[in-house]
Amino acid sequence: MIPESHGDPIHKRARPFKGLSFNKMIPNMITLLALCAGMSAIRFGFENRWELAAFSIVAAAILDTLDGRVARFLKGSSKFGAELDSLADFISFGVAPGIMLYLWALQGSGRFGWILALIFASCMALRLARFNTLLDDPDAPAWKANFFSGTPAPAGAGLALLPLVLSFQIGDDLVRRPEVVSVVLILTSILVVSRVPTFSFKKLKIPGPWVMTTLVAFVVLVAASFSAPWTTLTCVLALYIISMPFSIRKHAALSKSE
Which of 50, 144, 148, 154 gives the lowest tally of CB atoms within 10 Å of its CB? Predict the structure, then answer.
């Protein structure tokens, strides 16, 4: 009989969760809400309730933005929370948009349409895995924190769903065509896994003279979101696309200054 080796990692028992205060569990609850929003988008897609489906993805993006900030504020960041966040992002911004677009415009394309949905979801998974890896890079310069490598998951989902969002404003005649949706989905998949530097607004500092202007602009954005949500979302996505050449230029300048 072979004696049990307690020193072997294989035989080590998994450590149970330590007790957590309710406050430190709040970020994980927000992440789970984002996951539920992404899953609800899939359900609304099967029911052809496209505005509710798109709204669910927007809600997931807002919740995804909040969970990390709440975690830092409450000092509740953890490895478990980071892994849960990645899994929720994959469902909400990789799987859900791919299925939605397949049901909305690509179902008639047969296998080709489904392959595009698979490619998008796979690219999103690769993007999230790379992001988690880069988080542990101790040699990265401080200014790298101001940039993402490729399009982040929520923005990638928004860009992929841009034809659907446009259809709420101008109708289905043009933007629901399979070739249009296919091109958008392919380009977005490439952006998601690319090394194109895009701005990260997490650590953006507003200069003193611009604080009041920024607050007023935020109020205008919120008001516009309530009165014309899809037009506002389209404008935000358009501004994000316009910002890419500037982020590439800024990244190149900082790289040369090292």
Answer: 144
CATH architecture of the domain formed by 24-133+147-256: Up-down Bundle (1.20)
Q: Indicate if the pLDDT at residue 11 is higher than 60.
A: no
The mean pLDDT of 157-185, rounded to a whole number, is 96
Q: Six-digit token pair at 15?
A: 């450590």
Structure tokens at 21: 């205060």
Bridge partners (DSSP) of residue 199 are 147
Q: How many CA atoms lie within 13 A of 184 on its CB side?
A: 26
Q: Model confidence at 10, in pLDDT bands (50, 70, 90)?
A: very low
Which of 242, 32, 250 lies closest to 155 in space, CA to CA?
Answer: 242
| CA angle (181, 152, 189) in 5-degree steps | 35
The neighbour count for residue 223, using CB atoms within 10 Å, is 11
* 190 CA to centre of own chain: 15
* DSSP-assigned letters across all residues of 113-180: HHHHHHHHHHHHHHHHHHHHHHHT-TTS-GGGGGEEES--HHHHHHHHTHHHHHHHHH-STTTTSHHH
Tokens coding 132? 């988690």
Domain boundaries, the chain: 24-133+147-256
Q: CA dihedral in degrees (96, 108, 51, 194; nearest 10)?
A: 40
Tell me the DSSP string of 177-201.
SHHHHHHHHHHHHHHHHS--EEE--
Which residues fall within 8 angstroms of residue 193, CB to CB, at 6 or more apart? 123, 126, 127, 130, 150
User: Which helix H or strand E contains 230, and what residues bound it?
Assistant: helix 229-256
CA distance 63 to 59: 6
